[in-house]
Fold each of these.
Amino acid sequence: MVAFLLCFVLAFLTPHLSIEAKTAVKSAVKNECEGYPSPLPLIQYDDSTEEFKVPDQAAEFFSRLESKVALVIFAGVGKAGKSTLINNMLAVPHECGMTVSTSFKPGTRGVWIWPTPIQTSPDAVVLVGDTEGLGAPGAGEDFDAKLSTITTLLSSVYIYTVRGQVSHRDVTQLQSVTVMAEFFEKKFKKSLPLPALAWAILSTNFKAPDSSHEYIEWVLQEKSDETEENAKYNEVVRVLKKYKNVASIDPVTFFRRPHSQLDTVELATTPYSSLDSKYREEVEKFKSDLLAANIKPKPIFGEALSGKRFLQLAKDLCLEASILGGTTESPILRFVAKQAAAECESGYFTAMAQADTTNIALLHRTHKSAMNEAKVCFFEKAFGGEKNKENRVQWDLTEGALSSNFSVKAVEANHSVVSNCRHSLAENIDRMYERKFTVAAELAHFVRLIKAEFYAECKASIHDKAGVLQEREREIDQHLLSVKLREGRESKSRYEKRIVFTLVFAYALNFVVQKGLGFNTGLVFLYKLCGVMYLSFSFIASHDEYLVKFLDIFQSLSDVASPFIAAVSSLLHPYIRHDPFLVGAFEYLYVPIFSCMAVMALNVVLSVLRWCCCRK
């Protein structure tokens, strides 16, 4: 009653009130609506750009809606009473619910929804939507067809509202819906089904028929005159007759006048509780039948629309609205191809999300396999397969987008893998420094091991492996060179001592044997050679690059002689191991002793050969 009085004041007394009084009345109405949410714009039309769009409020609402969504749309010509019926059905005061206009201009622009979802199952909700009246003066070209296309493809139930009686105009207004119904019935029945169609006849002044089917048959009669206009009308009638409906919803619902003594302007300010009881019974029965109908969310390619998917579908429809409103099949095929692409893209992204990004080669194989599966999925779902031009164009766009996405993902994955390889190599190099190698041969062996380990464990490409290794290879080589030089300098004195010992030992032995026994030992060559070697080695040791090459050659010679020296050492070791002096002497004298013995043996062989030659 309070709401009724407030509305009465607003409607009749506001023009005569002062500014303060007007503010007070508006504040009272605002307080009256505090317990109700505000209607939410779902689709808006920009007159300047002639484009449909989904406003930010709707995008935020559906982004947070996790349940599956079923939309019940109320459509019809302007001033049919759609908004009034919705408010009465939801038991919401007119000033708080859908906009009800008492002027000649439309009250609803675009598509609006009541933002309180009606829970029909644990994971599904129903939303009620109100649309702008069809056939409004000044509407742009194909506006009604575009709006009907959007609402038909978004809704699960399409309720066409008529005031008084279904007329020729009402049937004609449904032409765009019936064109799509015929087209989708043939080609997209399974992938993108149309909504159930029901009629709401408001403010009837006749007795409701016993059967709604009897009324439909009487209203939807074909015209006998053979004109082009009648031919189009008859085609619409034929489609509407075979349009399938939800079994538990009566195809036609009749509503008497809300109040027998109030006109339209007065009804806009009359609270629901003050309307005729018979009318309220009809509204309540209609609401209960609608909710008991087990209205299911719109399935796209077999999958019910979630809030986010519903939002994306609405955006796609708004984007294509400028071309989807006509009767041409090409735009609709393109729209369905886009939906098929979106459906199959999800499988691709799921496979890529599960792929091992640490193995670049495996990631490439997964991308190729998932792309092939997405292609097969797309051409199975999109009507016409690869023969359809719209499908081929759409797949080229989809393939390009997926490949571009993969390229970015591959670059990121490769960067991560290369970073891991670089980190692993750095750890091995740190181990190399921690070992503090003093022998170049051991360090070189360790370097070969860490390189082999790096190539085995790093999952990057060969080119990237080589690049990462090249970044640190100079550092490794410099460290190896420094160890070699340090080893060479440390060994310099030891090598010089051995050369000097060999020289002195050879000279002394040659002097004793030659002077005492008169026997030519050939050791003169040895101690002269040692003198030359001493000078040469001193020159080599003063140049780093010569020293490194000399050490490599000497290491090779040592590798050849080491088995012999090890064998002799093992034979002599039992005899000298108890005497430290003998052990030390052997360390410094085994080279001159073996050298002298080798030269003397060679000299004896040469002497025998000369003697044999002289006898001959």
Amino acid sequence: MKGKKHLTWAVFAAVAGMSFAGEAYAAENAAAGKAAAKTTQVQEQSAETAESGGHDLPDTLVTAQRRRKSELDTPATTTIITAKDIEKAGYRNVFEAIDQQIGSTSTSYGEAGQDFGFSAGRITLRGYDRGTLVMVNGVPMNLKNYPSTENIPAAMVERIEIVKGAASTLYGSEAMGGVINIILKKPKAGEEAVKASVTAGNYFKKAEVFFQGDRFMLDVSREWSKDIPHSNAFGLDKVSWIDWWVGKGQKNRLGASVALTDELSLNYNYTEGNITRGGIKYKKAGNHLVKTATKYDYRFEDYRHTANLVYQGKENGIHAVLGYNYRKVDGYDYVKHAKVDSNAVLDGEIFDVQKTWKMGVDSLILGYSYKREAVDLIEKKKDATRTGNALYASYSKQFTPRFNFTLGLRGEWINDPEKDQSVFMPQFQTDYKLDKDTAWYINVGKAFQMPTVDDVFRYKNMNPQGLRPENGWTYETGIKHRHGNDTWKAAVYHMDMKNKLGWAKDAKGDYYAVNKGDFRNTGFEAEYMKRFNDTWSVTVGAGYSNPQVQDPAGKKREWVQDAGRIEGLVRVDYKKDKWQGNLNLKYLGDREYYKPSSGTAQDVPDKLQLNMNLIYTAGKNDTVTLGVYNLLDRENYSNRYGNLDLPLNFRLTYAHTF
């Protein structure tokens, strides 16, 4: 009955949007219809030129519907982050660029997405942990359901497209809360440059060289991070009674992009890193803490490869990607003098091809996707592989010059070591132009996510029947307005998911994965951007949601808060003569309650992150950048477990272009 109920609501929402088609059609005369249709056709032709390698359109995106459309005409809640935005705001990496947007309540084990082996920093959209699909040029980056951006150098990013809401119809498993597509830069004919930069800070150093040619781009860098004697919220009244430290770390990165032809490009990224982490466990004795004999001391080495071959036909409407994603984690426990049990090699491959047919102002996309994911637990000498085949379709019908309806369908057949699955996922989207500057949209879609591929043996004792796949619906409606220098957008959404994955503890105190229960989240998001003149601009955003999990194992089956509820954003940009400045404030409040095994149970404290970035163009080829982070020097929890962002810190960068 519940499945029928969800489908009924989905159809009702779609029909509600379509009902406006008749009214709009009656109100618009034939001449206006032809003119608007012609305008739409010209816009789509311009967008096709951009997608095929021509001049990029800053307010267009391709991820939401697998076809390039203007942001105003896209029936989903979207955010575009350009390379200029990353430079202007001084985002330290791709993770931070995404996390500083409304709708992100991400998990990190330190600053800006820091992770230690499989204690992994991960992007979270709309409060759904491990339910965001991250892609690079359309190639999934998720391994073991962890959405990671670690292997993507910020200097190689052209733009980032964030699409919130269920997106499994077009992209398959793991797009529960949304999908993020990181689109890399392409070599450009007639543009050749070499840029070298050095960065120094009180916690960080970096050296980087970036080369751009007619057909080839290369980015090489090395990073060093300083040791942190106390890296978490530790104390009698704190969430952790383990005093963790982080040792010195190093990362080497390489990114390359080759334009093999005008229609075929090859991209490759490589990262190798190492870092140490340890701590001392304390226990409560009266009104103070005393040391115990329990110590922790780990070293983690991390190796990542990402490669993709992208074909974009200029005339035939064919888009195809062939992708490979690899990660190896090699950890060592200095206390036990042994390798860490969780050491693993993960890899994934994808082949995806789609064909687009233009039928006047209407369009049809048909596609096929093949995915493979494998895990090899080195120390346990166990491995597992999952494969999937999918067919998908998306039909966009322009009923009137003002009203568009899109129907998406996906059938996926998954060969799983635990239990094979056959999944059908529909999506309904409507877009109604209230006027040339304002659009109202409805977006209803079903999402699906498999458990981690190693569930077949990793948690078998605790889950003899196996973990159940997560699935559910997102219902969303919103308005976008763009006129002159003003842009605003607002959306209301409801998520209703089943079999949410989470963690439980066994008798030994070790964590294992379980289906926690149902997940729901009803929320509101709004954002306003104002460009006052060529010098000043401001962005203000806010969000309120209520992410909750219902644990069926509980006696009262109560709904429990699962992530922060309140978000706020203020961003101020300045540019005049040789100076650029940015002030960015992100607030995450009313966070969830957490009861640790070794610490004081409490609500996770609010997070208030204030960053500043200044850029001075000293000459034609020289720039100096000063980024100051956590200006308020707050003790900001980067996750519920008490890991902290860095205190007040800075980075000074000098760059020279040859």
